[in-house]
Write a structure and sequence with these properties.
alpha/beta; Rossmann fold; five-stranded parallel beta sheet; 9 strands
């Protein structure tokens, strides 16, 4: 029955007496038989009064006998989003009923996005019938981003100027920013016909944000150097700004909806991308505009290639195989040989990437240096007179992936001449030796000399997925860090025995390989009250206070406090992308550090934190999370370690053969 259980009528009552069925609920159930819309309205109303058993009764038959797509869409159209969420989260609604509810909403989404339905509505936008136009508006507004994509496709394909104007007007009403972004994407990457019409549509808008797109068409049509130079300067500045924004972007949580060009290059399709990857894509778009207008100034070319490589690696950290390399070189240099391209651009692009702290671009250009390379090219990339070339210097890069890729690149170059000598070769050999001993885990260096504290830290680091390495002095820390291992974290006591904390930070930050390593300076763990004090305090609380305090979550959302948990950090935090952030920001104790220069406000991964010594791995969550959010490359995976280890062993064997 659908009534509410009555309260007991007396103290001695042993059974609950149900009330008569609720007339309103019964009436809604009867109305549900009036068709798809009536069923949807009844479900919506029943959810408002929380009549879960009645909802279950109406939805369960749909689980075993799913309605046709059109009928399911009509049911879902009458259920509001709020009531759908309420039903889906109700514990008294069965899983079968919830699956049936999801199915009818999936059917509605499919119906709203149906290309034929959207195209028919678009054609009705220029109808002389107001009713048809009103129906078309409703259909397109309900179609969301799929309707925007359909409108963009029609704008760049139709020859009817009135139709294009109406399409553009509705597109801007549905989602102004997304509509303009879609047209700009077709204007940049579409085929010739689609590009021309997309630019015409953007010209009709007359907005400041699309002037650069109109500038591209103007520069494509003129070869007058005097008129081109001012426009090129504007576009180069736009590329610089976009790249600065990309390098400064944080590895934030969640994805955003963006446009991708379709297979025919005559429209766009919606896709998902991380916000920081979109920042790199925007820089690549700015570079593509310069490439399209034929900006072949060497300095500009370096910036263009840097932006393009950075986006490819940011979007796909494994980018750089033989197929990727060939496609990239062919796309930007046509029939030019890879040797000529690398001889001209490899070192300038690598130097620019390192100077800009653009780690994805550095990895991208290092992976391009591959294939059958001549001895002459190998020597030119490795030798720079009496000084080490930028490629050799990169083996000491702050990011472990970049320095290992540099060492792997040099190993490939020396395959043509294993006895080749150049400035800095000893540094390369040292890096190979270190790579050859890479363990399965990242390293955490612990600056501590008290056995009981060292033991506690070793347990914590094991729980965090790190291999702990002990240093009993700042000098020992410097020696261990100089090896260039994959150091993920340095923790230090407040007062090392041979230097102050500020001097320890100075030593670490002056080393290239230590520049971006997170630093944690810990003070003694907070004093724990004696059992007698705790018992006295507990006795003074009421039972309700005790119950309330026991369920009080901390800033991480964990009841009882995350720092008290003896758990392992999630693998995704150590080895990959972090999907959720429960933390609050913790400021740096500048009284401890001594100078604001160590506030480390850059967006690199080398954050500095001061805090009481944690009791478990969970206490490291915040500093590791903050460090990961500032990095644009994933940390080394176990398979990466094996690959770099094998490369180093082969290189060592190759260069030591008689």
């Amino acid at each position: 029955m659908h009534g509410i259980v009555a309260q007991e009528t007396g103290v001695d009552s042993e059974e609950s007496t149900p009330l008569p069925p609720d007339p309103a609920v019964e009436q809604l159930i009867l109305k549900a038989s009036g068709g798809p819309e009536a069923l949807g309205r009844s479900l919506d109303s029943l959810a408002r009064v929380r009549a879960w058993s009645a909802i279950d009764e109406l939805l369960q038959p749909l689980a075993s006998n799913a309605p046709a797509a059109d009928r399911a869409a009509r049911i879902a159209s009458q259920i509001s989003t709020d009531q759908r969420i309420r039903i889906s989260s109700a514990e008294d609604v069965s899983e079968e009923a919830k699956k049936a509810l999801d199915a009818i909403f999936d059917a509605r989404a499919t119906t709203l996005r149906d290309p034929n339905r959207l195209q028919a509505a678009i054609k009705q936008l220029t109808s002389s019938s107001d009713d048809e136009k009103l129906g078309a508006y409703r259909t397109l507004f309900r179609g969301g981003e799929y309707a925007s994509a359909a409108l963009i496709g029609d704008i760049v394909q139709t020859k009817d100027l009135d139709q294009r104007r109406e399409d553009l007007r509705v597109l801007l009403k549905i989602d102004r920013s997304a509509g303009i972004a879609g047209l700009r994407r077709v204007a940049l990457y579409g085929n010739d016909s689609a590009r021309s019409k997309a630019i015409d549509a953007l010209a009709m808008l007359g907005l400041d944000e699309v002037q650069v797109d109109l500038l591209v068409r103007r520069l494509e049509a003129t070869s007058d150097a005097a008129s081109r130079l001012p426009a090129l300067k504007i576009m180069r500045l736009a590329l610089k700004d976009a790249m600065d924004e990309a390098v400064a972007s944080q590895h934030d949580f969640g994805d955003v909806s963006v446009w991708a060009i379709n297979a025919k290059r005559d429209g766009v399709v919606p896709t998902q991308a991380a916000t920081w990857v979109v920042a790199f894509r925007n820089a690549a778009d700015a570079a593509s505009r310069l490439s399209r207008v034929g900006d072949d100034d060497p300095a500009s070319m370096v910036q263009q290639l840097t932006a393009q490589l950075a986006y490819r690696v940011a979007n796909d950290p494994d980018w750089g195989d033989a197929k990727n390399r060939d496609e990239f070189i062919n796309a930007f240099f046509g029939d030019a040989s890879s040797e000529d391209v690398l001889a001209a651009w490899a070192l300038p692009v690598l130097e620019n990437s390192v100077e800009l702290d653009n780690d994805p671009a550095a990895v991208g250009i290092l992976r391009l240096i591959d294939g059958e390379l001549s001895r002459g090219l190998s020597a030119s990339l490795l030798r720079q007179g009496a000084d080490a070339s930028v490629l050799v210097e990169t083996v000491d890069h702050p990011n472990a992936t970049v320095r290992y890729e540099a060492a792997a690149t040099i190993a490939r170059l020396m395959a043509a001449d294993p006895q080749l000598t150049f400035a800095g070769i000893s540094r390369v050999r040292d890096r190979w030796q270190q790579m050859a001993t890479l363990g399965p885990k990242g390293v955490a260096i612990i600056l501590e000399n008290r056995p009981e504290i060292i033991s506690a830290w070793q347990r914590i680091m094991a729980g965090a997925g790190f291999e702990p390495r002990i240093a009993d002095s700042v000098a020992a820390l410097e020696r261990r860090l100089s090896r260039g291992d994959d150091v993920r974290l340095i923790v230090s006591k407040q007062q090392p025995r041979d230097a102050s904390a500020i001097e320890m930070i100075d030593v670490v930050r002056r080393m290239r390989v230590g520049r971006d390593v997170p630093l944690l300076i810990y003070s003694p763990a907070p004093m724990v009250e004696t059992p007698e004090q705790l018992e006295e305090e507990i006795d003074q609380r009421t039972e309700s206070q005790k119950e309330f305090d026991a369920n009080l979550p901390d800033q991480f959302g964990v009841r009882g406090g995350i720092d008290s948990l003896d758990i392992e950090i999630e693998a995704s935090l150590i080895h990959g992308t972090v999907h959720r952030d429960w933390t609050k920001r913790r400021g740096l104790d500048l009284q401890l550090i001594g100078q604001t220069r160590w506030g480390d406000e850059s967006l690199r991964a080398g954050v500095i934190r001061s805090m009481p010594r944690p009791r478990s791995a969970a206490g490291l969550y915040e500093i590791l999370l903050d460090s990961r959010r500032r990095a644009h490359l994933p940390t080394l995976s176990p398979s990466d370690r094996v690959r770099y280890r094998m490369i180093a062993l082969d290189a060592i064997a190759m260069t030591t053969e008689e």
